[in-house]
Amino acid sequence: MSTLDTEIKAPEPVQGLPDASGQFEDLLALMARLRADCPWDKKQTNHSLIPYAIEEAYELGEAVQSDDDEDIKGELGDVLLQVIFHCQMYAEQGRFDINDVITTLQEKLVRRHPHVFETETLKDDAAVKERWDEIKAEEKQAREVRGKPTRRLDSIKAGSALMQAQDVQKQASKLGFDWEGISGAFDKLDEEINELKAELADTSKADIKANIREIEKELGDCMFALVNVARKLNLDAETATLTCVHKFKSRFGYIEAQLAEVGKRLEDSDITEMDALWEAAKRHERSQ
Questions:
Q1: N or C: fewer beta carbons within 10 Å in the chain?
Q2: Distance (Å, whole) CA 203 – CA 211
Q3: Cβ–Cβ contacts within 10 Å for residue 164, how many?
Q4: Contact, 14 vs 29, CB < 8 A?
Q5: pTM given for the model
Q6: Residue 136 and residue 171: Cα distance in Å, rounded?
């Protein structure tokens, strides 16, 4: 139910060609129009949008680092789009709307800043952080009263899947839920890979789409098991993956550059030529 305890209605779609007015209500009406008339927007769900929300947060971080005003405005807009997109769909479901989200945020900000809005006096940012944590603990207790008990792994902060996987495993390890050495982690990785292979072997090409959720689960188990291996090696899975991403981009850029020197595009090449250039890129790395 809405925090305002009123009937939830999704915003009315804008009619005709909308203006870029800079007004929040016009933005909500534009989002409603997209949900009504755009085939891609219509088929989205709150679950299907999760990767986009994560992606946009990362892109905003990169834009802030670049310190380019146009890029920052664009990426802030993309993050805002994710917020209003989710709110539009929840409003369509009659659960809550953007006003409820804003109200909840306002209440939280006031509640967590008693040194600003009440008589408390906190001398520095460290004291503010300590008080903030105390208030968050009080909020957790209030959730428990509402029938939402706090579990040990609830303290894991949101982040990339790799970061959360590693943090979850670290917490479980502290409680004794872990292998003594790395061999157990490798055995589990082998087990999960074999289960994924078996799932794919039992699924015909025509049935892959229908069975995609089970395949996704098995693939996720493989990646989770690989993170365990990284943890046992005292390596950060996120950093290791990013290193691989940057390496791949560098080698692929080398392929593109070498093709350009002979007047060819990537689209004009084939896997044999690109694979040969990939090996050349590796040799080039070793020579640096």
A1: C
A2: 8
A3: 17
A4: yes
A5: 0.63
A6: 20
